[in-house]
Amino acid sequence: MTRTTGLNTGLDDFLAWAAAREGAPALPERPADAVLCLLALRGADRRAGVPEPTPELVARVLGEDLPGLLWATAPETDAVPQVLYALADRVHQAGRLNAKRHLRLLEAVDAAVPAFRQAMADPARLTWHRWYASLLRADGVDPDDPSAVTAWLGGYAAAPHEGRPALPGTLRRAAVSGRTFAARARLAELLLAAFSRDTRPDPQGPLLPPPPLSDARPDEALGAALETLADTLTDRWTAAGLSAAFAGRHADLAPGPEVLPHLQLADRLRDDHLDYYGAGDAPLPPPVRAAAPEEVRALLHAAPLPDAVAAGVPGTTAGALPGAAPRRTPAAFAETEIEAIAERCGFPGALAVWQGGTPQELTELAADLLAAVAERLPAVTADGPVPDGEAGADTGEDWSLDPAHLLYSLYERGGTPDSVARRVAEAAGAQVAVEAEEQPVPVPASAADDGAYALPPLAELADLLGRPEVTEAQRARLAAPAHALATVVDALGATGCLFRRGDAYGLTPLGGTVLRHVLLSGGVAAPDAAEAAAWDARTTTAAARRWPPAVAASALAAGAEHRGGADAEWAPLLAALAGERDAGHRGPALLGAVAALDHAGVPNGVLRPALTDPVLGAHALRVLRARGEDADAAAVPLESRALLLAEELEERRLADRHTAAAEPGGVEGGGQAPRRLLGAFDAAAADWPRGGAALVAGLARAAPGSVGGVLSALRGHHPDTAVADAAAHELKELGRRRGHRP
């Protein structure tokens, strides 16, 4: 039998009363104890001699508490509602519950049970205690025998990692650590609240055993007493001795969030993702290159910093590790730094993972190493590197680029190579052409990895930025921060997760896999290529619209190929794009999405029927003609032409703003005439039915959510007063409609 706890819940009397009822099933002690204790800890009245359930308390105990604190066999899980039914009957018998409230309580139990069963079986609700309790009970170990539990843990710890049972599904150790921490924190809060209530008189006496307040340090003694009680309850509801084992000899079997450096990096990446996308469930593109599980070990062992960290463990040499090359100490790290990184990542204990860990454990170790390096590196500013927590010189340029953001920005672009100089220019606020900023950078085959950095020549820099007017003086201002950023990239590259060749840098296959693990640990949607390819057309197009064109093209092509690659598989992608816009989608323009479809190889046979579509017709015509195909422009609806023009004119407007800002003494949006925009508008108006004023109205109807900037520019700068007045009118109408939007 399970030992009774020190909580004053009336458990023994309740179980005896329940067993004496004619025809009633015996109630197992473990789930009964958990239910009574948690009801009492949540403040249930105990005047009936037992904690009195209410519909609200039942919902919280079944939905929030038990799935994180109790491991139960199938019969024990089935017994939980029976415990609550019996409690309701006991309280009713004691005269504390009338017939109507009794019935309401039973109905509340019935309503909460389906979600409770689902939560108890949900791998996402696992804690370390519940996981190991499930394993040892599956092996026939008595969970109430601490000696048997300790012996089982010893055997488990000594077993090869690859032979251990894997966590269910795609569950990660970091998620179990976080869930364990959250469950323990909730229990600690409940115990502290119960102690506070116990300071007030209660006819049933205090709930908790008396704390050792006579101790010389009563506050510390109280905290220690509540921690001990939390351990006792947790072990009672899972397996005896687990808490002490996880706090001592077998701490490596149940790591907490505080010993997993990559969880702090995950928080930083999630913050960046929320800034970029506004929601954690907005998916990032899959990395273009990602290591398969069976490749992680070799890639990690081949990386210089992990190799140096593992080889630096006392009593170990690199040559003694399976398949290891001679030790290579990365030039960017002193011996003391390597020792600090090793300690941060759990060495020497982590050596067992290094030598024989599972792919997931090795990925987690690689993530910890990457995070430990990232948190030690300085942010890059206009003056070069600035250590964390220090301010840069006052140069009038207020910007910084920290390593965590650098990692996120690489993954956000699908892991495609970027340019050190371009990244610094973007961070510094330099104008980078829209078509250039997300373009993958060619990786030179001749440059050595991690070679001395050299800023690209002026002509090459102009191509990278998409701005032929870049001057040598502007290039010179990028030199110091670009060299500093290259140093940061090289240090991160020592982990095996990044590479740099010349000015180009990007994620390695190991880096793609490791960063995906970190992002998922932070609750960010980061599908792999197979997951993204299996999405339906609407999900695929909605996600691809927010991704860089080259990455979006690959994802769209993969989605069509996943379904067979024929015209019939491409058509739903176009239909989904049209449907989003027709439904008032306010995301990025169709121009980029259709361009991605073009790059992905959407067949002409799919584009031709789209010519008559009121949303996609003009976009389809543009792609077909660019391919040298004959296409009938007369088939394209005027509405579709206006939609495409609205997007093209917005591009011209932004280009004009960038040019104005780049001129000596210029200010972006400072009042200069938008020459590109006006020229493109007049060219379109010359071929538009009823001229420029009618075109203005057509633009406002086709793209009310995105054409405001174009209309403002036309109102302020177009020399034809009819056009300017029409733009002013449409702006007023748009403002009126927005002001009255429900």
UniProtKB/TrEMBL annotation:
Enumerate composition-biased segments (Pro residues). Answer: 203-213
- Give the span(s) annotated as Disordered: 199-218
* Name the record gives this protein: Helicase XPB/Ssl2 N-terminal domain-containing protein
Organism whose genome encodes this protein: Streptomyces sanyensis
